Amino acid sequence: MGFYAVQSLNALSFSMLLLLTGLGLSVVLNLMNFVNLTHGSFFLLGAYIGIYWLASGAPWWLAFPIAFAAAGLAGLLLERFPFRQFYARTHLMQVLLTYGLSVIFADLMRWGFGAQIISPEIPELLRGVVFILDMPFPVYRLFIIGFGAFLALALWLVIDRTIWGAVVRACVVDRGFVETLGLDTRRIFTAVLVVSAGLGGIAGALGAGILSAYPGLDEEVLILALIVVVVGGLGTFRGTVLSSLLLGFVMTFAKVWIPEFSNVVALILMAALLVALPEGLVAQKVRQV
Amino acid sequence: MLLARIAILLVVAALPLALAGDYQLRFLAEILIIGTAVLSLDLLVGFGGLISLGHAVFFGSAAYAAAITSQKLGADIFVMLAVGIVTGMISAIVLGVVVMRTIALFFLILSLIVGQIFWEIVFNWRELTGGADGLRGLPPLELHTGFATIPLTSGVTLYIAAAALAALAYLVARSFVEAPIGRALLGTRERSLRMSALGYSIPRIRLMVLAASGGIAGAAGALYPFVNLYIGPNAIHWTMSATMIIMLVIGGVGSLYGAFIGSAIYLGIQTYVSSYTDRWQLVVGFVFVLTVMIMPKGIVAGIKAVLRRRSGARSVR
Amino acid sequence: MIEMRPLSRRRFISAAGAAALVGPVAAPSLVRAAGKPLRIGMVTSLSGPFTGLGESMRAGIQMLLAENGNAFAGRPVELIVEDDQAKPDEGVRKFRKLLGQDNVDIVSGVISSAVALAIRDVVTEAKALTFISAGSANDLARKAASPFVFRPTKTNWMLGHTAGLWAYEKLGKTGCLTIGADYAAGREYIGDFVATYQQQGGKVGKQLWAPLGTTDFGPLLTTIAAERPEFIYSFFAGSDAVRFLRQMRDYRLHGKVKLIGGGALFDQEDVVSAVKEAALGGLNTCNQSPTAPSSAAFTKAYQAARKVMPGEMGTAGYVTGQVIKAAVERVEGDLSNKDKVKEALLAKEVETVFGPMPFDPRNNQAILDIYVNEVKEGPDGVPVNQVIHTYKGVRDPGPAA
Predict the structure, then answer these.
(1) Do C52 and A110 touch (CB under 8 A)?
(2) What tens digit of pLDDT does each residue of B85-118 get?
(3) Are A208 and A51 contacting, i.e. CB atoms less than 8 angstroms apart?
(4) What are the residue ranges spanned by the domains of chain A?
(5) Nearest to residue C47, comparing CAs of B26, A111, B115?
(6) Which residues of A49-78 are buried (b: 16+ CB within 10 A; e: fewer)?
(7) C144 interfaces chain B, CB cutoff of 8 Å
(8) Cα angle at B152 between B11 and B10, to 5 degrees?
(9) Cis-peptide, bond into residue A82, ω within 30° of zero
(10) Domains defined for chain C, CATH in brackets
């Protein structure tokens, strides 16, 4: 009994990890119709920053906002040049540009941070396990579940329930009209991109506790995030949340019952979903150039 | 004029035979073979508007099929090509059926996922494919004419075989593009709604271009293992597909011959620049990003445009 | 009767020309070889997943060269390092480049077994003297052995086998669980361990496999916790190893269950420095150990230069240099007769940082001392692999196997 309870918690924490990696990408894709393949690089940057911060002895809880800020800053610089010129271009061009940039960043980070694998010092408070019916489950993963849920909820609230969210959503649908209302859409898009990058960074700092940081992690994370977001369906967060839960649970229980085939099973499921629902789990009308 | 062009091409193609060493000729052969695969990708991307991250599947599965067949039946070049073309076409049609209803970003991700499923099969089916270690010790490629068997193992022979393949592939692709089916394909890319209204079956057109593209990639894939007498799962991984897209973009999407230029530039940087600095990926990244930003039609078209502007003529764009 | 023809000018010139050609070849080889640069090519991974390992290997051989004033047997050494990006295709290309374009006398290196297997035919066809520094697939000592390829490093079998012996003797006769990365190397290590362990009479329980690159070991660790094994034999390398060890600690299995693995699982430079305390108490069998007596001076020098204790790859680079140096010195710098070089290497063992290294004449595979390491807290609080036992002169079963 305890075994299945803990495995479900394992699944939930993995789903949360997937959601975290996909959140930033989902934001920028759904709210700005911009495919940003440098998302993995933001994640890795946040992971490195988080690790160095935690190792430096400064208050641990600051690591996450700092990672958010650092990645956000990188996003800000990139947004000015060259992202801004590509908002109106086709998805293909965006894919090509951002993929090329991610290759450049991957090498710069390898140069700057080195090729060795590094891992964070988990703060005292988050170490240890809780026992669910005498099966151990790490506290850090509970932290990830909690934090991830909090972030997702906060994001959803802002986008769906506040005026700012409405403004951003309106920008995607009809930028010109929003301009006539006197709002500077350029600033809005910049803000959205910075938030998206920051989300990538904070996800990296959180995820580093489980994944560690090393060159190549950015590409692995990017693929996961892309699959989760696209299979979830463009235009809404519900889709991303649903697909992370689905993928997380399938992968976890596949590892319990048929560990060698867990990857293949997950891939086949994702493919089957896209075949059955070619616009993703939660389809919505999105203007594609 | 056409004859003059062909003559020049033949001379250019023959130059390496006179000047280059065995090692360089083998390298050129590799460039031509991979370039042919990228050429087939151009049909999909440049003319069909279908950006696929699963293209390595056509190439890689044909390579494995040829390698495995050669272990049982020896490596007659025509048998290998036949096996490769058939495998390439079948895998393309399989992919086509699966991705039929998806477009754009969804197509991209689905092609990636299906590609990785193929990779997992190849990586884990150790008894057949050698798994992570791949297949080595393949029999040498041979050309069986009526009276003699010519082994295709040296740099010279491989280069000639690869050049012949590249030329043939180019001709096939060119004729496909200029045939009615090619025109229809362009139509599906530009005005898909109108095309369906006119009665064209978009899925059928897509399937045909996928089959053609898969066949050409398969032919290239069939020769690939015999350059190094080795084939490994890397040839079928999504990063290989991504690399082919990079090559295509650098060379020039939609130009067909740009595929070979892109292949040469990328492989050149990868092999030669990496001898001088650890930062070769940075170089590739920069070249790629610059191409995307300044010369979206590829390096050759970009240079042509610059020359045209210099000579005063107005560039038609 | 020998017919004597008058010496025409043409015959004289051609005779003189022939003599001029033959002369240098016949001259004492010492005169010819002395001073001529010795070109050594090393192919290692400087980008891709093995970048850290590749950099360590390069540093190792550069250290050896620097210590010897960049010269072996009076010949100055030119080292050309190439990047195979951990891809077999690229590895083949680089080997061909080194042999065909750079005209190196000796090729060496290679971390990935897949690359090693891919280049085996290239170097054999080119009849090039090759020293594989780390690619340790069993086949290279068996089916794929080549007269031109020397392996101054272990085979996977050596580590799996000795672990099986140690586990049966010291850890338990039952209650063993194995978990490993699901690819060629993982299958070899665990397969060899299980074969030896069962041969001794041991009983193996569940055998778990994780796909290469697994990010979340949680479900597998929960399964292990439920199974409650006596001890675990495991094989992971690189980032998989780091994640596995850390997550084992996260799930409170660290310290509760004895863990023994292949050398890569507790590699001093690559893994232990990343996971720190999570590695304490771990056991591994490996041909390298920073605390092995033969490694004492090297460990100190490496730590001074790179600020971290050497792992297998850094040491392997250095050892490759040592073996090449021994080979070159034994033939006094003359590498023209490859058979002579081979004979010289096979005749006597080479003293290396791994330990004494004789080569098996059947397959040019090194016969090595395999250490059983336990990760304990070192003098400055840093976890270190300490040798607790040595299996001397372990020899791979070879082509017969």
Answers:
(1) no
(2) 999 999 999 988 888 777 778 888 889 999 999 9
(3) yes
(4) 24-216
(5) A111
(6) bbbbbbeeeeebeebbebbbbbbbebbeeb
(7) yes
(8) 10
(9) yes
(10) 38-154+294-366 (3.40.50.2300), 157-286+371-400 (3.40.50.2300)
Specify whether the CB–CB gap between B107 and B51 falls below 8 A: yes
How far is C88 from C85, CA to CA, in rounded Å?
A: 8
C131 contacts C146 by C-beta, under 8 angstroms? no
pLDDT at C34 over 60: no
Tokens of A90: 């086709």
Counted domains in chain B: 1
pTM over 0.90: no
User: pLDDT class for C48, splitting at 50, 70, 90?
Assistant: confident
User: What would the pLDDT profile of C227-282 be if each residue is shown by its tens digit?
Assistant: 889 999 999 998 899 999 999 999 988 888 999 999 999 999 989 988 888 899 99
CA B297/CA B304 separation, integer angstroms: 10
Q: Which tokens is A55 given?
A: 């190792």
Cβ–Cβ contact A220 with B under 8 A? no
In whole angstroms, give the CA distance from residue A77 to residue A85. Answer: 13
- Domain that includes residue B125, residue range: 2-238
How far, in Å, CA of A163 to CA of A152, rounded? 18
Mutate to test the interface with B, among C51, C57, C95, C96 (most CBs of B within 10 A): C96
Facing residue for A271 by CB, picked from B103, B114, B121: B114
Whether the CB of B22 is below 8 Å from some CB of chain C: the reply is yes
* Residue B20 with chain C: CB contacts under 8 Å: none
Residue B263 falls inside a structural domain: no
Number of CB pairs < 8 Å for B and C?
84
Q: Could you tell me the sign of the dihedral formed by the alpha carbons of C338, C344, C347, C351, in that order?
A: negative
- Count interface pairs A-B at CB distance under 8 A: 92
Is B300 inside a domain boundary?
no
Across the interface, whether the CB atoms of C215 and A140 are under 8 A apart is answered no
CA C320 to the chain's CA centroid: 8
Residue of C nearest to B140 (CA): C121
Measured between alpha carbons, how far is C186 from B190 in angstroms, rounded to an integer? 50
* Cross-chain Cβ contact B281/C99 below 8 Å: no
Q: Tell me whether residue B287 is in a domain.
A: no
User: If DSSP codes are grouped into helix, strand and coil, which group holds residue C127?
Assistant: coil
At A107-139, the pLDDT tens digits run: 999 989 988 888 898 888 888 888 888 888 999
Residues 6 or more apart from B152 whose CB is under 8 A from it? B77, B140, B141, B142, B143, B158, B161, B226
Quote the CA–CA distance of A146 and A139 in Å, as a whole number.
11
| Distance (Å, whole) CA C211 – CA C244 | 12
**In B, which residues are within 8 Å of C47 by CB distance?**
274, 278, 280-281
The 10s digit of each residue's pLDDT in C360-385 is 999 899 999 999 999 999 888 889 99
Calculate how close chain A gets to C127, using CA atoms only, in Å.
Answer: 35
Give the residue from A241, A221, A222 showing the smallest Cα distance to A231.
Answer: A241
Distance from CA of C98 to the nearest CA of B (A): 10
Q: Is C213 on the interface with B (CB under 8 A)?
A: no
Chain C hits for A215, CB-CB cut-off 8 Å, are 51
pLDDT digits (tens, 9 = 90+) for A158-214: 888 888 888 888 887 787 888 888 888 888 888 889 999 999 999 999 999 989 899
Q: Helical H runs in chain A? A: 2-32, 39-55, 63-80, 91-113, 139-161, 163-173, 175-180, 185-211, 217-232, 237-257, 262-276
Is B309 part of any domain? no
Angle in degrees, CA A74, A79, A81, rounded to 5 = 105
Q: Which two tokens stand for residue B197?
A: 């209204």
Q: Is A56 helix (H, G, I), strand (E, B) or coil?
A: coil
